[in-house]
Amino acid sequence: MEEAKKKSAGDLRREALRYDQKNGYDRLSAGDEAAMRTYCEAYKKFLDDSKTEREAVVSAVALAEARGFRPFTRGKALNAGDKVYRVNRGKALMLAVIGAEPLSAGVNLCAAHIDSPRLDLKQKPLYEDTELAFFKTHYYGGLRKYQWVTIPLELHGIIVLKDGSQITVALGAGAGDPLFTIDDLLPHLGTEQSKKPLSEAIPGESLNVLVGSRPFKDDEGSERVKLAILDLLNEKYGIVEEDFISAELCAVPAFRACDIGFDRSLIGSYGHDDRVCAYASLAALLDCSPARTAVCILADKEEIGSEGVSGMKSAAFDTFMSDLCETQHTPLKVCYEHSLCMSADVTAAYDPNFPDVFEKRNSALVNYGLGLCKYTGARGKSGASDASAELVAKIRRILDDADVVWQMAELGKVDAGGGGTVAVYMAERDIDTLDAGVPVLSMHAPFETVSKLDCYMTYKGMKAVYEAKEEK
Ligand code: MN
Ligand code: MN
Questions:
Q1: Ligand 1 centroid to residue 247 C-alpha, Å
Q2: pLDDT tens per residue across span 300-352
Q3: Nearest alpha carbon to residue 338 among 98, 104, 22, 167
Q4: Share above pLDDT 70 across residues of the chain, in percent, rounded to a whole number
Q5: 301 alpha carbon to ligand 2 midpoint, in Å?
Q6: Residue 209's beta-bridge partner residues?
Q7: How many Å lie between the centroid of ligand 2 and the Cα of residue 142?
Q8: Rounded mean pLDDT of 71-87?
């Protein structure tokens, strides 16, 4: 037998000193690989069931209830091992697993968001032009408008009648449902449009959804196509045109989550941002056995600045936490100052097709695991909460102890742009917060791509954080 080659002094020093990362597949155990497959199939189902924040809440509550979670009633005593949740206005969800350690020792928290970029209908959406009927839209979140034309769209949301009763709409989700679309110019007539910058080629007011073309039968009046659509809507949902005033309807891509690549290593879908981290945070909470209390918040409105009663800035979160704390006569501020939060949101994956906007040495790579962002923000870290070195060290320890594949990530070149998420609003509450999430290709596009390994490692990382025992 040949003798193993002796390592040179340089090799030994290299091993000891350098930080050289490996592709996650080079260290994935067989057990993790099997668990990853199961996990990703369940995640794909969650995606298909959850095209809006409201639908994500319904899906998440069903999963939580099946695992023993119950609605939390203010003032009710809680014991270690209890699993509770509270829905905020149908659009956000907070869950907790009560630990044996007191809430005065702080909680381990994961915060993600369940809203995604989309096209919201205006409050007076329906109109007819040249015997075609359309819905006017106002886009929600930072989307690239040119990507949203000539793709199949579904219609999701609710209509609230004046008497308070609600009608749920999920058109396109069922087999055989009709779909919708937004048209674009043919290349033959697109010469002038093609000269415009991408951001101007499709103006916001041209994102009008085509909803019909057939005129009302045997009628001589005006706007017969619009009338025929109203007639159909009345028949199907019992609504009249004025009811759109109190509706929240949106057009979302009609794609179903699917495997991408010959090797099926990736998942393509609408809404990975941020249901990929929301699902990881939720699934990890359902599976964890924490010593400290573990809390998961799935927030709304992140894509438009975390504003509003259902966003991360809302006191609804503080109210939930103080309701928990009051069961142990603990001041909320004492709980907060000892707590630890992962702000679970996606980051940009390095895209070799667009190398100019990335700084390769500090970018998240596909299949290199959960991406930790010490800071987000733009131009000089503006708007970033910038996690402390102490916190980053603690998270390194927690993730390494749990054998999680992770990497450091920065969203793009210093002067190229930037972004933000809910981290800053958690940090403002006096909670130590670090951003962490799945690297995404084509973020905010109607069809985004993530790696299965990164999805699973995000789940594993969040579970390790919930179960972390150390105190501040
Ligand atoms: Mn996000
Ligand atoms: Mn986003």
A1: 25
A2: 999 999 999 999 999 999 999 999 999 999 999 999 999 999 999 999 999 99
A3: 104
A4: 99
A5: 10
A6: 135
A7: 7
A8: 97
Distance 72 CA to ligand 1 centre (A): 27
Q: Which ligand is nearest to the Cα of residue 304, counting in written order?
A: 2
CA–CA dist 42, 279 (Å, integer): 9
Contact call for residues 265 and 367 (beta carbons, < 8 A): yes
Helices (H), 213-306: 224-237, 272-287
Is the CB of residue 383 less than 8 Å from the CB of residue 40? no
What is the pLDDT at residue 472? 47
**DSSP code, position 248:** E
Cα-to-centroid distance, 163 and ligand 2 (Å): 35
**Distance between Cα 393 and ligand 2 center (Å):** 27
Span from the CA of 307 to the centroid of ligand 1 (angstroms): 14
Tokens for 150, please give them.
């000539």
With tokens 């000089």, the residue in question is 380
The alpha carbon of 113 and the centre of ligand 1 are apart by a number of angstroms equal to: 7
Contact 252, 447 (CB under 8 A): no
Amino acid, res. 182: I
- Could you tell me the distance, in angstroms and rounded to a whole number, from the CA of residue 102 to the centre of ligand 2? 35
DSSP string, 65-81: HHTT-EEPPTT----TT
3-state secondary structure of 40: helix
Would you give the DSSP letter of residue 120? E
* Ligand 1 centroid to residue 59 C-alpha, Å: 19
| pTM summary value | 0.97
